[in-house]
Amino acid sequence: MRIEDEIHQKNFKDDHRRLLANLLFTNNWLNQQLMPFFKDLGLTLQQHNVLAILRGQQPDPVCFGDIQNRMVDRNSNVTRLIDKLIEKGYVTRDICQTNRRMIEVRLTEPGLRKLQQVDENFPKLFAKLHNLTQEEAILVSNLLDKLRG
Amino acid sequence: MRIEDEIHQKNFKDDHRRLLANLLFTNNWLNQQLMPFFKDLGLTLQQHNVLAILRGQQPDPVCFGDIQNRMVDRNSNVTRLIDKLIEKGYVTRDICQTNRRMIEVRLTEPGLRKLQQVDENFPKLFAKLHNLTQEEAILVSNLLDKLRG
DNA sequence: GTACATTATTTGTATATACAAGTATATGGG
DNA sequence: CCCATATACTTGTATATACAAATAATGTAC
Q: Where is the HTH marR-type domain (chains A, B) (predicted)?
């Protein structure tokens, strides 16, 4: 469905404004797909992002700063995100002995299993996101890179 | 900058996952550009969206449901958004006399002037968003429409 | 015209976010 | 070694969001 029809706007002043509205609208649409998916699995999108980052560095621990820099959403408060994940038993935190300002975060066995459970359900989610061909997905991704400069 | 470098991820499992990460990351980047712009003008992105919708329907009033349906961000709580805009003196609300469940929202003179002030500042904002050519902007927009199905 | 469903908006509440200020540790110059 | 500055994380707070339940007016079947 065209963005004009989605938000009932006859036309846009120019194509860049149309793109801006479309990006914001599409992000909202995306979140409507993603949030219930992760909620059913007992995670938020950001919590899953942190777990995936930790798995990517296994068996090394990852400190808060590195987590922040690798997150898709840069505005997450890592301290409070990790608090939630500790509550759920998916990660551990320890003060780094070589630099006591830093916190070492590690994935636990249950955290790893939760990630695997998410993986098993991914096909269900991605079925909704395959309206573009592989070539189109590559094209959009490259143009988004270009948009950000 | 490529999304791989932005979030320090060597590679993605497939191009659709790369696109997903890129869309979410780009939206965050966009918000980092938009939020301070609107904040300087004393508005939020959603408040501005509502004002623009009201201007589009002038001189007719718009009810909450229609505002909701035309908003880029569908999850906004229109009641509380309008409360804020009334506080600022940019809109009025009246009970619709033909259907007393509905609320008629109208732009005020100060609301219109605020919109004009935003318009005057738009070129400053859009300068950051012109890394794509017009053709590329059209292309991405059309592919986003296709992505949503 | 009364009961029941539907529509339109409001409110409550738990959680999340943005942003600024605070604390603790480390580093480097004199 | 001492002090200023930088780094890494934490906390406070005001505002925003998601989501469910509540209210209130209207429409509809009988």
A: 16-149
> Confidence class of residue B51 from pLDDT cuts 50, 70 and 90?
very high
Residue (of B70, B30, B36, B78) closest to B53 by Cα position: B70
Nucleotide D16: closest residue by CA–C1': B76
Domain layout of chain B by residue ranges: 1-40, 42-148
DSSP letter at B103 equals: E
pLDDT in tens, A98-121: 999 999 999 999 999 999 999 999
Distances (CA, A) of A112 to A58, A79, A80, A96, A122: 10, 20, 20, 22, 15
Between B9, B136, B138, which is nearest A70 by CB?
B9
Tell if B82 CB is < 7 Å from nucleic strand C: yes
Q: What is the CATH number of domain A43-148?
A: 1.10.10.10
- Of 3.10.28.20, 1.10.10.10, 2.60.40.420, 3.40.980.10, the CATH number of B42-148 is 1.10.10.10
**B85 secondary structure, DSSP code:** H
Asked if pLDDT for residue A74 goes beyond 90, the answer is no
In tens, the pLDDT along B63-81 reads: 999 999 999 998 889 999 9
Say how far residue B118 (Cα) sits from the centre of its chain: 13
Report CB contact under 8 Å: B1, A134. no
Nucleic strand C within 7 A of Cβ A28 = no
Closest CA to B132 of A18, A44, A1, A53: A18
Q: What is the pLDDT of residues A3-21, one digit of tens each?
A: 999 999 999 999 999 999 9
